[in-house]
Amino acid sequence: MRKLVYYVAATVDGFIAAPDGSYDFFDLHPDPAGHLVTKWPQTFPTFAHAQLGIDRPQGRFDTVLMGRATYEPALRVGVTSPYAHLKQYVFARSLPPSDDPAVEIVSGDPAAFVRDLKERPGGDLWLCGGGHLAGQLLSEVDEWVIKVNPVVAGSGIPLLDHSFAPQHLTLLAATPTGAGVVVLHYTR
Q1: Which domains, from first to last, does the chain contain?
Q2: Of all residues in the chain, what percent are helix, strand and coil, respectively (each to 5)?
């Protein structure tokens, strides 16, 4: 069965973006970028592959899931398929169907949709954002990979937008990557 992996950058205080959805305060230093390109090459947008030296982004994911707010920055600059190397599902009730064959807009229940995807053959599923979608998929997330950046934001979009529901996780790895970034990898 496929796994759903929430792989995302976060601040020390648990935010994945500023209140306006921007995330440019996360610096991409060469040290962490080198580790991430080696270990998680599929998580970089297709347009960045050439400059990062990614020829064929192979790895565990063949699908990316994102919310509307995560997808919209690409649309604003005219990119309809930010992860063209992956099958892309965007969960949004306010977007029309995509004209891009690599992108499917899903307006139904995210948890039911993901349960169905997990049963299909293929690689693992990458949940790349955002916090609201992660909250809706909390019961379906099998692994958490959090790139904790040495930044305190104070407020913004939380890592997970969900009511109080503690779930205990098991740490698989804690990898310092340079420039103060630590990649924490947990499983349910």
Answers
A1: 4-187 (3.40.430.10)
A2: 25, 30, 45
Upstream peptide bond of 130 is cis (omega within 30 degrees of 0): yes
Q: Where are the beta strands (DSSP E) in 58-154?
A: 61-67, 87-91, 103-106, 124-129, 143-149
Distances, alpha carbon 144 to alpha carbons 73, 148, 160, in Å: 24, 12, 11
In 4-109, the DSSP E strands lie at 4-11, 15-17, 61-67, 87-91, 103-106
The CB-based long-range contact list for 93-96 (8 Å cut-off, 24+ gap) reads 94/68, 95/68, 95/71
Residues 6+ apart with CB under 8 A from 153: 11, 13, 15, 18, 25
Reported as a single tens digit per residue, the pLDDT across 49-108 is 998 889 888 889 999 999 999 999 899 999 999 999 999 999 999 889 998 999 999 999
